[in-house]
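Reader question, answered in our methods column.
A reader sent in the components of a multi-part assembly and asked whether the whole thing could be modeled at once rather than chain by chain. We filled in our standard form and ran it. Here is what they sent:
COMPLEX SIZE: two components
ENTRIES:
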Amino acid sequence: MVTSIFGGIDMAELSDNELVDGLRNGEGSALGILFDRYADRIYNHCFRRTASWDAAQDATSTVFLEAWRGRERVMLHDSSALPWLYGIATNVCRNLNRKQRRHLAAVRRLPVDADSPDHAEAVIGRLDDERRMAALLTAHEGLPRRDQEIFSLVVWSELTYEQAAAALGIPVGTVRSRLSRARRRLHAAVSEGENDHD
Amino acid sequence: MTDHNPTDDQLPPERPLDEQSKARMRAELTEAIGRSDADRPRHAWLVPTVAAAAMVGIAALGAGLFLNGDDDGRDRSGEIAPAGSGTASDPDPTVKAPDPPASTMPGRGSTTAKIPENEMRVEPPVPCADEVGNLLSAARLAGSTTYDEGTAQLWTDGATWVICDDWAATSDGGVPTLIGNRSTNDVWSKQTYALSQNYSMDDHLVGQYVAGGPTLPDVASISYTFPDGHTQDAVIGKDMWLMTYVATSGPLVDQTAETEPVRVQVTFDDGTTASYDLQWGQDTCAQINHGC
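And here is the structure of the entire assembly that came back:
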């Protein structure tokens, strides 16, 4: 965690409420603290929407840039700016460009047992992550787009129903009912995918 | 939220951003802030542009990014998005972006997709008798109303009633929707008219709204006016009443209308009326199984 002392105040100790006030006032330091506080969460969420660590990095940068651009519309949910950031991330990932989509398609085509002895272990691990995530997204994409977004927010990124509703700007009941069906349908899709590999 | 899901075991573990990447991203943000907001005075997250660029690779000095200072003051607001970000749109989480064309949806039409959307396996529809039996073991069928898109049945064991609607099960398989589970001697309230809302999984541009129950004494008509302007009258039969509305387009499907309440107007035999405003989420999740 990067911290800064500004005017005798440890910025990292500020609440999201205080940071959002600062953001509304055009204080870049507030965005910096929000970045340090939530970048990893947004980064992993973006990975789960793209199956690409590189695309997730670009998307994470874009999310915080968009947060800055849209700072006058910032919203808190239960004193947290995180659902708002997830909402931006959902929109950013929805608008992925063709390059990133081609990457996703290419990752899907990678052989499951690819042997890469010359690669560092970390690189292999990241590649394996991307392959596994691409396989999950293949099943995930059989769901309507809005159900995909709810599923990834609640199940994969572990937002509460209320936080997901705030992120997407929809009623909590809608989150619940769509998630219930999405779970059933994804369960069937994943089972079928496993059977195909058998 | 912590229920086990079929994909939990396959989900790759989370990874933190490495410090070098974070430093690069901070530098990009710092530069963008300076570019986009040069005209207004502020306490910025400031590092001069040249210094920001130099931060790449020296993550341990990242704290320096938060030093106070001023930028160069030039307006370069058109250059906000970082290279490769793929979007410089202005998303507002409260406003839904339009769906991209189907042909550009990720994974659509991919030759490597294992499970085409139109071939996804779904569970067979569960009969109402089976699903109701899980809730009220002694319940018997007391009424039925067929509408264009499905059938709703009234079941009761004498003490409790439930409506079983087969629209979702017929459309997507699985269990039908149960509404009610209320005492046959229940006192009327706004919840008497609460809505169940469903969405088709085969065509997510279709939303269904249902309300119903045992016939209410002395009630001549019940009408629901939705935020999209549509008014739907309930069908009142000898044993049960039922209101169904299937929205196939417009603000209800887009969910842009879900901040306005649904107005219920009840007219009694003596001509008097009562009205209720159903709030989204609070009064629109009347189903008692799968979801809400």
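What stands out: Residues 1-9, 112-117 of chain A have pLDDT under 50 and may be disordered. DSSP finds nine helices and two strands in chain A.
Send us your own complexes using the same form.
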